[in-house]
Design the sequence.
């Protein structure tokens, strides 16, 4: 590596700090940038800077946004009586892609994890309760992950919401659609069996 | 994807143009850049621009360099009677890493490939002959790849150099060091057998 010119070494070092990018991949990416046009390299660099200038968290729901209040929060056509609670911005995007939800979101920015010192005050639970107190939400759909932290977060939120006049629901878990039953793990299958419903 | 703010979409689009980076990876990289400090993002962007400003091909050997003449070409301690011919800058780096060569390099910037319309004029063969004519080179070590194009390029160069007073050699091919014989492909093994030497 030290046989490359220093400006190239510097770029390789920067690129290999990105997640999932090893030294070999960083080397290949840097070579590509060297071969690409000046204009392409400039627009890549500019979009990296632009994102630091523009992207912030929506002050209402916590989604990534380039405005103070995000598109979904400021959209009058979205049902504000329905509130979907997720852990991360990417989870919200996954739900949006499904097209199955027309309400609004609340992004916790994490999940409870006492082992890692993440308690209720470290994620946006107070902000959630505040939104519920405003009185327009009728149903809270908890869509945290189905791992230990996500399930614990879901129970904690359900408990906290007990004293409010809202319905609290949890997205269903079970066998994924299109899944071959023989490859479904036992825990998922057990859950699918326990929560079976009439046809 | 369209559920992300536009500046984020733009960065994801730019990143997914890099080789080996799909849309999912680009999304993950962009999220990492969002979470990283402003200073880190700025130095990544700056090093992308810097490389376009500084990196050029050494006008003598064709290696990547941040000067007109690269470090190796301008190093008086490198043996200028020995010239190693490689296809790509990365191949030169591989030879340098081995520590086995103390001469100078000539980077062809490609290999002959008549099928793809790459003839002798498309790679730096004239420049090579020009360097040989200067008379200081005593041995040309051809270190092109051992695939069809690399072998064809090696033969072509050997033919062209016949009329010059230089020794032309080819790096050895055979079983890789540390390799388990049972996993070596038949073509390599055949070559290793044909070019066996006395111990």
Sequence:
């Amino acid at each position: 590596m030290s046989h490359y010119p220093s400006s190239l070494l510097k770029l390789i070092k920067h690129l290999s700090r990105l997640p999932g990018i090893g030294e070999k991949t960083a080397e290949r990416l840097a070579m590509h940038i060297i071969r690409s046009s000046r204009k392409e390299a400039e627009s890549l660099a500019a979009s990296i800077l632009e994102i630091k200038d523009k992207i912030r968290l929506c002050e209402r729901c916590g989604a990534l946004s380039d405005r103070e209040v995000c598109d979904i929060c400021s959209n009058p056509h979205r049902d504000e009586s329905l509130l979907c609670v997720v852990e991360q911005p990417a989870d919200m995007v996954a739900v949006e892609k499904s097209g199955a939800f027309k309400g609004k979101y609340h992004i916790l920015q994490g999940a409870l994890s006492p082992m890692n010192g993440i308690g209720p005050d470290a994620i946006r639970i107070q902000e959630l309760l505040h939104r519920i107190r405003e009185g327009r939400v009728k149903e809270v759909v908890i869509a945290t992950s189905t791992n230990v932290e996500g399930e614990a977060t879901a129970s904690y939120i359900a408990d906290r919401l007990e004293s409010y006049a809202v319905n609290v629901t949890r997205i269903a878990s079970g066998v994924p659609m299109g899944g071959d039953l023989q490859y479904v793990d036992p825990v998922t299958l057990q859950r699918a069996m326990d929560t079976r419903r009439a046809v």
Q: What stands out?
A: Chain A has two domains: 6-54, 77-198.
